[in-house]
Amino acid sequence: MDIVDLSARVQQAERRALARAITLVESQRADHRALSEALLVALAKSGRQSLRIGLSGTPGVGKSTFIEALGLQLIAKGLRVAVLAVDPSSTRSGGSILGDKTRMERLSQSEHAYIRPSPNQNHLGGIARRTREATQICEAAGFDVVLIETVGVGQSEIAVSHLSDIFLLLLAPAGGDELQGVKRGIMEIADIVLINKADGELKSAASRSCADYASALRLLGQRTQDPEGFPKAATVSALEKKGLDAVWQDICDLAQWRRANGHWEQTRQQQAGYWVREDVEQGMLARLETPWVAAELARLSKDVAQGEISVTAAAQQVLRGLGV
Prior knowledge:
The protein is an alpha/beta fold. The chain is built from 14 helices and 7 strands.
């Protein structure tokens, strides 16, 4: 595979090259990993940066509808949009189950948009194992905005905060019990909480929910990386295209403030450190998937069960065998 040629075609935003590059970085084959690392180094020289927007939301809240509506609006403003949609994995094939591309038909038909569904392969954190590398590829291809849709909403979805510049949490109109069900962890990292489906009979319920979430955000307190008024809650109707202009203006205002006050680059440096550590941890975990470790674990498990050795001592034996 000619990495130099592939890198050049990715930077020209050729769709087939984009698909091939992302497939390469998502591959678990050792030879593909070496090639993907060379590709990412080559693409990093482009120096391009996109606005990375992470988006999570409860099931049925209308994430795909919102992404399509926002994406089409951004394209109308002259921007190019990439969507990385992370889906649950099929237990049979390992591939995506939901297929977001089929649910964003209008956006997928635009020549100024690129949609890539990826299976999370049961990787915790709401994103796929190589979503970060896919984001880098989209940046090098010159997309102005990269929308990263997580697989769901919950405590583990906070990993997307280490990948995005702005994080949106999309919720449905709800009552107090539903508010209690939203994990504090994900509320603490949300920059903007959006109450979707603020239309028809749900319009008044959405307004009440917005007030409830705004109050919850105030209780959490203002963060050092935010200007006055952030994090904030707002209502939106993706179906009726209402509130989208205000959402985009809030995103732009927050991004501009963070750039002007040095938080943008500082956050990206911290994110890079997080992903280095993440790769080290994943590499260590991969070393546990060897025949030797499997045999040692089976042997030591019997010894632990018979009371001949403690769990801690057994673990130390395996770690010493791995040179840790």
